[in-house]
TrEMBL record:
It holds the Pfam family V-SNARE. This is t-SNARE coiled-coil homology domain-containing protein. InterPro entries: SNARE, T_SNARE_dom, v-SNARE_N_sf, Vesicle_trsprt_v-SNARE_N. GO terms for biological process: Golgi to vacuole transport; intra-Golgi vesicle-mediated transport; intracellular protein transport; macroautophagy; retrograde transport, endosome to Golgi; vesicle fusion with Golgi apparatus. CDD domains: SNARE_Vti1. It comes from Clathrus columnatus. Residues 101-128 are annotated as: Disordered. Residues 101-114 have a biased composition (Polar residues).
C-alpha cells in the first residue's frame, strides 16, 4: 500500500512531462512559424495543455500526502521544479499571445494606410494615433494580466505551504494521541500488576499469621503435655 502513492505520482509525472514537451514543441517551432489564426489556434491548444499539466501538478501533490514521511521531501522537490517549469511556459505563452495581438494590429494598420495616402485622407494621422494608443493600452492590459497571474500563482504557493504545514501539525497531533493511548494502556497494565502484587502480599501475610498461630498452638500443646 505504501508503494501505491509513489506509483500514481510517477504516472501523473509522466503525463505532465508529455504535456510539457508537447507545449515546448509548439512554442519553439510551430507557433513561431505560424501566422494569424493558425498561430492563435496553436496558442489556444498550448493553453489547454498547460491547464492539463497544472491539473497533473495538483494530482501529484495529492499523492504526496499519502507517502511515507521519509520520502516526501524528495517528491516535494520534484513538484517544486515542475511548477517552476510550468510557470515559465505559461509566461512564454502569454508573451506569444501579446506578440500575436500586436502583429494583428500592425497588420490591420498597414492595410488601412496602404489603401490611401495621408494626403487623400485628412483623418489618417488621427486614426494612426488612436491605433497606437489602442496598441499601448492592449500591451498595458496584457502586462497587468501577467502581473495578476503571477500574484495568483504566488498566492497559490503560499496556500499550498499553509496546507502542508496544517497536514504536518495534524500528523503531530495524531502521533501525540497515539503516544497518549499507549501511555494509557501501559498505565492500565501497571495498575493491574500493582493490584496483583498487593493481593499476593495480603495472602502472604495471612499465611504467615496462620503459621505463627499453628506454632503457638503446638508450643502450648507441648507445654500442657509436659506439665500433665
Amino acid at each position: 500500500m505504501d508503494n501505491e502513492p509513489t506509483a500514481l505520482f510517477e504516472t501523473y509525472e509522466s503525463d505532465f512531462i508529455t504535456l510539457v514537451d508537447a507545449v515546448k514543441v509548439k512554442l519553439d517551432g510551430e507557433a513561431k512559424d505560424a501566422q494569424g489564426e493558425a498561430r492563435k489556434a496553436l496558442l489556444r491548444r498550448s493553453d489547454m495543455e498547460l491547464d492539463e499539466a497544472d491539473e497533473m501538478i495538483s494530482q501529484m501533490e495529492i499523492e504526496i500526502q499519502g507517502m511515507l514521511q521519509s520520502i516526501k521531501p524528495r517528491y516535494q522537490t520534484k513538484v517544486k521544479n515542475h511548477k517552476t517549469e510550468l510557470n515559465a511556459l505559461k509566461k512564454r505563452t502569454r508573451e506569444l499571445h501579446a506578440t500575436a495581438n500586436r502583429s494583428e494590429l500592425l497588420s490591420t494598420s498597414s492595410n488601412l494606410y496602404g489603401a490611401s495616402s495621408p494626403s487623400d485622407d485628412p483623418y489618417s494621422n488621427s486614426d494612426r494615433s488612436r491605433l497606437l494608443a489602442g496598441t499601448a493600452s492592449l500591451e498595458d492590459s496584457t502586462r497587468r494580466l501577467a502581473d495578476s497571474h503571477t500574484l495568483a500563482l504566488q498566492t497559490e504557493d503560499v496556500g499550498a505551504d499553509i496546507l502542508r504545514n496544517l497536514r504536518g501539525q495534524r500528523e503531530q497531533i495524531e502521533h501525540s494521541r497515539d503516544t497518549l493511548s499507549r501511555a494509557d494502556r501501559s498505565l492500565d497494565k501497571a495498575s493491574g500488576t500493582l493490584k496483583r502484587m498487593i493481593k499476593r502480599m495480603h495472602m502472604q501475610r495471612y499465611t504467615t499469621i496462620a503459621i505463627v498461630a499453628v506454632l503457638i498452638i503446638l508450643i502450648l500443646l507441648i507445654l500442657w503435655f509436659k506439665l500433665t
